[in-house]
Write a structure and sequence with these properties.
globular; about 425 residues; 7-stranded mixed sheet; alpha/beta; 13 helices
């Protein structure tokens, strides 16, 4: 009996807890570059990229070749027991790429949440302080500390009780929704007045471009003022580049475009082309604040994932993917803005590089986010063979995270499907 999406969904429902969500009722069988084929043999254009994990596409030949070569050498020793060169080499390359004119060191772990957890640990050890300021709409992970930092209760921490204390929430600047740079800075100052003295705050953590929050780009003037505020009070600035890193925004790290450098930078997702590795890179003096044994993990910096990440970096250089990212972004934004001219439900099309969002409202009213239409567009696009994602505090943002290696013809085909969806639904 051949497998179907429906039969596999039934098995999934019986075997997997409902808390593990699934956006599309599809089981992937195989993939190549920016297309996926399901178990029934249907082909889909992938504008999701595994949620920003596949900037180099599915099964990039050079990434797979590097992994296959590593598989003939060793798959695991635990770096804290027996070290291996790919871990060190990857740290060296990340140290060179992360913004900041200072000596750096890098810790490798396995997931984005784990990277953020460790960044907070490092900041606390380096400063001797415990508090952390995060932002409205921020997303930093699903572990307990990172859920506290994440600015969205449902569905991430709903029903789980209060998350760890010592976390304070400031406003993320967003011109579209009336939050200016002055407003955002004032909200941090209010925390200092009402909740915690600056000397009790170890770090301020921010996404240079919010991911789950809606792909809002932090204004450069805000980042400059935030950096100055941190310097004034001895607070470490953590840039969460889990989703923005590895070339998604047109530079390898988004902070390269922000005019300032963070003290600590977290990364994960696309850094290894689909293999699980993540990390924290920061000022050497801060990274060394924790004694031997205080950092690490059994699978942290797996040799397989390190080999994949080194190949990803090589691919970015050889295929000039940062330039390609800009071209992909420009092509998609131009196409999406053309759709916007015909549909007032589209209130905004925005992007940094190829990190692209389309925000939907009822009749163009910026006070009425249209989550229903957003969900309908995602479902209709799937029916037509295009995989899309939504995001945003109100679930009214379509996001595009297509592999940077996707051909122009495929991008245009995806745009045509999106246009059809709006013509039929909006």
């Amino acid at each position: 009996m051949s497998k179907t999406n429906e039969s596999l969904m039934q098995r999934r429902t019986a075997a997997v807890p409902r808390g593990v969500g699934q956006i599309h009722p599809i089981f992937a069988d195989r993939a190549e570059n920016a297309t996926v084929i399901d178990v029934e043999g249907r082909e889909f254009i992938d504008f999701a990229g595994g949620i920003a994990v596949l900037n180099t596409g599915h099964l990039h030949p050079k990434v797979i070749a590097a992994v296959q070569e590593q598989l003939t050498k060793l798959t695991h020793t635990c770096f804290q027991v027996l070290a291996y060169e790919p871990y060190v080499e990857l740290c060296e390359k990340v140290n060179a790429k992360v913004p900041g004119d200072f000596a750096k060191k890098t810790l490798l772990v396995t997931t984005g949440s784990e990277a953020v957890e460790n960044a907070v640990k490092i900041a606390r050890a380096a400063t001797g302080r415990a508090g952390v300021i995060a932002f409205t709409g921020g997303y930093h992970g699903r572990t307990m500390m990172t859920l506290g930092l994440t600015g969205k209760v449902a569905p991430y921490s709903a029903g789980m009780g209060l998350m760890p204390g010592g976390i304070f929430r400031a406003q993320y600047p967003c011109e579209l929704h009336g939050v200016s740079t002055d407003d955002a800075i004032a909200s941090i100052e209010r925390i200092f007045k009402n909740d915690a003295e600056p000397r009790d705050i170890a770090a301020i953590i921010i996404e240079p471009v919010q991911g789950e929050g809606g792909f809002y780009v932090a204004p450069k003037d805000f980042m400059l003022r935030l950096r100055a505020l941190c310097d004034q009070h001895g607070i470490l600035l953590i840039a969460d580049e889990v989703q923005t890193g590895a070339g998604r925004t047109g530079t390898f790290f988004a902070m390269e475009q922000m005019g300032v450098a963070a003290d600590l930078t977290t990364f994960a997702k696309s850094i290894a082309g689909g293999f699980p590795v993540a990390g924290v890179c920061g000022k050497a003096e801060y990274m060394d604040a924790i004694a031997p044994g205080g950092l690490g993990g059994t699978y942290a910096g797996s040799p397989i994932a390190c080999a994949a990440a080194l190949a990803v970096m090589q691919v970015f250089e050889e295929e000039q993917l940062l330039e390609r990212c800009k071209a992909v972004g420009e092509r998609l934004v131009t196409g999406l803005k053309a759709i916007q001219t015909k549909h007032k439900a589209i209130g905004d099309v925005r992007a940094l590089g190829a990190m692209i969002a389309v925000e939907l409202f009822e009749d163009g009213d910026l006070h009425k986010p249209n989550a229903a239409l957003t969900g309908q567009i995602v479902a209709k696009a799937r029916d037509k063979g295009l995989i899309l994602l939504s995001c945003g505090t109100y679930g009214n943002v379509l996001r595009v995270l297509v592999p940077l290696t996707a051909e122009d013809a495929l991008l245009d085909k995806g745009l045509a499907i999106i246009a059809e969806c709006f013509d039929e639904l909006a």
